[in-house]
Amino acid sequence: MSDVHASLRSPLVTGDKTISDVTRDICAPMDRKPTALWWSAFGLSLTALIVGVAAVWYQIATGIGTWGLNKTVGWAFDITNFVFWVGIGHAGTLISAVLFLFRQKWRTAVNRSAEAMTLFAVMCAGIFPLIHMGRPWLAFWMMPYPNTRGPLWVNFKSPLLWDVFAISTYLAISAVFWYVGLLPDLATIRDRSEPGWRKRITSILCLGWNGSARTWLRYETVYLLLAGLATPLVFSVHTIVSMDFATAVIPGWHTTIFPPYFVAGAIFSGLAMVLTLMIIARKVMQLEDYITMTHIDRMCKLMMSMGCIVGLAYGTEFFMAFYSGNGYEQFVFKNRALGPFAWAYWTMVSCNVLIPQLLWSRKLRSTLPVVFVIVILVNVGMWFERFVIIVTSLHRDFLPSSWASYAPTSIEIATFVGSFGLFFTCFLIFCRIAPVIAIAEIKGAAHLKKRPPAESITEEKAA
Amino acid sequence: MNDSAKKTYWKSFAQRDGCLDANEADPHQAGPAPFSRRHFLEAAGFTLSLATLSGCGRAPEVIALPFVDQPEGMIPGRSQTYASTCAGCPAACGLLVGVRDGRPLKMEGMPEHPLSRGGLCAIGQALPLGLYDSHRLAQPLASGKVTSWEDVDESITRLLGEVKQGNGAVRFVTSTVTSPTLKAQIDAFLAQYNDAKHVTFDAVSCSAILDAHEKTHAARVLPHYKLDQANVIVAFGADFLGTWISPVEFTAAWQTRRAPTKKHPKMSYHVQFEGRLSLTGGNADRRYRLSPVEYGGVLSHLATTLSMLAGEDPPAGRLSESPIAATEIDHLAEKLWDARGASLVLCDSQDVSVQVLVNFINHLLSNYNKTLDIQRPSRQRQGNDADVLNLVEELKAGKVAALFVAGTDLTHNLPDHKAIAAGISKAKLVVSFAERQDDFASLAHFVCPDHHPLESWLDAEPVAGLVSISQPTLQPLGGTRSILESLARWSGDSDSAYDILRASWRENVLPRVEPRPFQAFWDKAVHDGFVNATPIAPTVSEFQSDTVALVDAEPSGDDYTISLYSKVGLTDSRHAHNPWLQELPDPTTKITWDNYVCVSPTAAKELSLSNGDLVRVETDEGSSVELPTLVQPGQHDRVGAIALGYGVRGTDRFADIGPKWLEGRPTVAPGELVGKNVASLIETRDGELQYTVSGVTLTKSGGRRDLASTQEHHSLEIPRNVAPHGAEVRDIIQETTLEEFAQDSHAGTPHAHHHGDTQLWAEDHTKSGHSWGMVIDLNKCTGCSACLIACQSENNVPVVGKDEVRRQREMHWIRLDRYYSGAGDDVSVAHQPMMCHHCDNAPCETVCPVLATVHGDEGLNVQAYNRCVGTRYCANNCPYKVRRFNWFKYEREDALQNLVLNPDVTVRTRGVMEKCSMCVQRIEEGKIAARQRDEPVVDGNIQTACQQSCPAQAIVFGDMNDPESKVHGAFEDPRRYRLLEEFNFRPSVAYLRSVKNREAADGGEHHV
Description:
Chain A is mainly α. Chain A has helices at about 1-10, 20-30, 35-60, 75-100, 110-130, 160-190, 195-205, 215-245, 260-285, 295-325, 325-340, 340-355, 360-365, 370-395, 410-435, 440-445, 455-460.
């Protein structure tokens, strides 16, 4: 039956692979010594990370004054980066959980790395609210824990507190989801490894996986449940992040459209980042047979549709400002498009709405360099979206006497670069120590050839 | 179940069975061990040796309390208030010094004082910081080296003896001395020498007014202007609300005529002619842009028109073409004529013939002895420029043998520095009384530092018949000595300043009051701070009409005229070392830490200058200076204005002020000073120092110097390219005209949608006890910024330095928003003090994740500093942007400066949000005091720092739950409005709409 489908749809795995080929190909990067390309990428990322760590250390030692903020613009790069990274972290759960529930089998090629990406992106995101505090060493005060300060408790009215819960929940669920999905593959690695430290570690980490039907049954149940649990998070996290702005009184922030707008934007940026990583990974790690042009094509379509939703949100915002009859509101949007930060606004519109329209063309969708440039631009555009929302709303609010400008300092830029450093360092390490594609899942989803006679038994057992 | 209660627990079988082993017996049950003779001797010996040892060393001396006999009513930690006189400038306002544990901390205005009426300006407020300044000289200097008073006295006495023998000229230069005792002391000191003279030199002189009165009234006096008697005020350049002569007094008097009510919709009519945009001009009902060289022309026309109205012959002379339309002059003349006897013409010109014309006009209008008093003249400016110029000539000629300078920096404030310095070097004895190494002191042979005014006994007679006392409020911090004592030593006396002052009062003041025993009189005078004495009236002649002549207005031509002015809060160089005042934004330009050339937008366009571009100012006499540009709307197109009092020696100390970090720039570049001294541009003409210099060329010189402004956008009009249709101008400032107000006291209310007045948390914010509120009368507020420094002093607000201000990170809790309005280059100015509004529905409170900012049960929005983690969400969400974040740890210069801190207010650490607390510490103090007296809090007993010192009494604070309170009444005022009311933040701070005495403008005024 599945063979019938396979002939209608483009295959998920190309290159005429057998089940053991899949295992071998995907595990290959872990067995080989790192390539020069990996080393140089790792060196670059680590340098960026070190720069970022130095910048954060300096900023914590000296004060938030080392950022370009002022009495009017209290947030800029910090929260922009936070929302940017949280947004990127959305695609992972979307692909793993939502597409899983919708039985989209093509997701198996990308879900593992998308989940890892989510994890690392949320880690990057989490750093910013922490270091943006004037006194980050007191960050634990944001937690509602029993304390000796009398009746002093956290403020449950504050969206920042909701953020704490939303982000930490999301991080926890994403990590568990990622880890649970990794279990069969960890067992595969265990079984493939020579006795040694890797075997010992994976033996512990795979929680005694034995490949029995009962193990698989439990595993699939847990995975399904986790997917169900994670799905609402795709919507809740960015909804809550958007409430940081939507519940404020500042024109440009105080907007009811923000929750869906932010969720769409988050998925959009997340898909762009997944694509960015996939395009690099398939090339660098020779996974062209697993991450095929079909995958890229589908991701492009998904991304473009999200881009259109985001574009609709931009238009709606403008319409609502006009329709509200509120002068302050109208001013903010005119000021965005024509004021001192118009360049940022138009960067955002071009990158997020105009350029993705190119993806209507099938030809462009299948031209990798074009897709790569577009996804990079979408990443840029989505960063600017958050910058525009935060900075242009704050810098000119109610009283013209307080209007101010904003420009980042070197420390802020270094911190931003450092967050990329952290992200890619983690991702590169991940590529080395775990299969970037869910071996077990892809075997189940793709219709592979039977095992040729010469294959060993051990691999099959694990799979 | 109940068995468990009866259960017994055992540790061992033995215990259970009741046979305790000997080993387990309770050791405490054993009897006391026998204390043997041997043990006794051991212990006794040890004790004895310890006792002996402890007697050998000296125990550290700890002074728990400085008092042997605690003065009555003195409670450690509680503030005591002493009456004194402000010595920040010669205006000599009444001062109440708040002293705590021997430290003067807070300067407040003395409400009973007849001149200042409870007001105090920024300079007065900033006095304590000047006191706790480690850069003040602590010892006398001889040739720049620290020495002892004995050596100095010996050398000076010896040199004076030589001068006396050689009949050398002794010149004693002071700024205006309002102290009768010091004046007498100087006179007595100089009387010992044959050729001796006391020269009064004011850095910003009003000498021409005195000289004009010498001509017209045969008495060199400065009239005492009574603005509270004036219905029509016409000022030519005189910045009487900002810096001119006695701004606090004038503001206090001016505001009495600026409060129209529904019943009496009347107020004074104030017209200002000026070249630059001054604080006073910004508050005028009608303002004309007029170059200072044209004052004479307009005054001539005014004098001629008024003469005709009076039926007298106009003064002789040619009448040149008026720069102002004839109808305007006629209109103004009519207004003045209708208000004769209750009008006032003021002018700050240093041209005697112009001042004579002013006297003539005031005479025509019968204003003398009504709105200007020359029977009881003012002594607040006594500078005699002719004497000064004479002295300069003498110095250059090497004719001065001994030169003494007190209270002013002679060389800094005069042009031709080089020649004067050379002249000084020819003198045998040069003595400075400066409190720090200023420019003159660096040239002097001896520097005999005087006490800080808060450390010394002195008196003042700012207006004839009002004698006030200045009393010390702490032991002198350094080895300084009162000038009274120094002069006494050199005359061979050893009296203390206190004795000298008492003797002087016994002799000179006591006879002028109703007879009573001296001690009782003295005690009361020290307690009250001032006495009303019989004035010593000058002999004033009838008006000498023959001295009056019309002034031929100089054609202004294409050259620029430079107007040298004093900045509000600094005036002349003497406060340049005070970082509070340096960081005080200019009320009009909003710029800190610099002086600059103000040019009109038209002139800037012609010269292709923009803010911060360096411009070279060259006079036709060859002096030049290079300063950054400030494009100033409302300025005359041919006038450039530069503030005096900058470029003061020693201000390079501020290089280190403010946080130091990677991208931080020093406030003062290496080798530079704060601003530049422009005294070299002062011209001397007709025996007067001229602060108006014509024939100046301005050229763009290429470089740039960033100015640190606290405000970037200057009007309520939205920039045209982003202005939404129908909301081009924001109604943040509400304004109306007297005419409209008379018809409808609610005139000026904008049409806005109000979406109810819902209390979001009515149960939480019951405010059943007090409900603190504040109302600020925008009609009275002049923008003088005294409140800003009062708040800084009260609330330990740090100084952040130029770079941080440039980055829009000043920490002042009160911001004085200034908006320009009006069409074209003619602007009017609105000032709006902006502090935390303590909203009922506070946007900041809901968003703080850790509840660091919460609502108090008396309506205050309270900030818990030690709970704040610094997310800055509250500041982002504040619609008024009044929250201030501690971006860095703001260090003070040194430990001495920490003495200025108010112990009632927490010093905030880095990373914490802060803002106006409505002086919660004062509220609590007032409540505790009332509770101790077992009576309710009386309205007016609790005053916030800003309210207390406001010279215009524009701020009303109190309990809105008290129906009798002033603030409750002000909330009912038809002029009352709340900012951004349509958003329902329910702020506790409200404003009273500004009313200008103008005819209703057609179509309304537009903010530009």
